[in-house]
# Entry
Amino acid sequence: MTAALTLSLAAGPYDRTEPLRDGTVRPEGIDLVYVPLEEPPEAFLRGLAGEFDAFEFSCSLYFSRRAAGDFPFVALPVFPSRMFRHGYAFVREGSGIREPRDLEGKRVGIPEFSQTGLVWLRGILQDDYGVDLRSVVWVVGEANRPGRRSASIAGRPAGEGWKLEAAPEGYSLDRMLVEGLLDAYMGAVRPNSFGVDPRIRRLFPNYREVERAYYRRTGIFPIMHTVVVREELLQRHPWVATSLYKAFCQAKDLAYRRMAHSPSLRYALPWLHADLEEARELFGPDPWPYGLEPNRTVLHTLLRYLREQGLLTGELPLEEAFARVNVFEGQ
# Structure
């Protein structure tokens, strides 16, 4: 009997990956060492440093680096993190921002230009509301504490006309927003002042309604992260891609069953079962599909946004961007 291949995988502690962590789902032929990390960016950094065989990774960074060449990882068509982002744009009272087009000419704080959630949000603002992204001054810093991003600008876009600044030393973006040094903030986390300072509000107060309408119109549930594997490992063991993909699908299906069929609330959400019913009505039986075919529109839209925002300069066909998995799509 052939010994199982030991493989390490780092990802966020999601319900849809919990069966992989607790061993309920075991990838065929693999002795999986699952490393749950609270902050996905930690998986990005430690994975790139060589600590893991496979790890959760930013989809925008993956596409950019893969297209540029010399990136030693290849993605599986697995997307552990998806999120609508209309609710993550915040504005300050007195900034003159009443609707999205009012962002033009304003100073907007962001954690980093290449963050996938921001690529989506900027693309939506341009596509759906006609915002001229190059008219905005993008101020790069840490959301709620001064930090390393205040010192430099990561992911600077190619092309002319973009306006980027670094946040001043000692300032978080939240502090700048409160003190009137920024007109708005966008990012993957909320500013600490939201809900505390009544002057800070959402650009889209009815964001859930707006997001539902966006999905009905476009069919897009934005993808944030994928899972990448060492390319040299897949060259030596090509079957690993299929084994991991099937295990991720099985884990997700089990997570759905655990949530829907528990006689009590599995999570501390008072209307969990009502939310599940609403999600099924909107998305169908699988709101979180893996595989290329169910996600072509989403992925092509993200690639377009990356090109338009100066973060992708080469061509990257989807079939070349993802490892081949020998199963029927959605299996």
About this structure: The longest helix spans residues 239-261. The domain at 86-218 is CATH 3.40.190.10 (D-Maltodextrin-Binding Protein; domain 2). The chain is about 35% helix and 20% strand. The first strand starts at residue 5 and ends at 11.
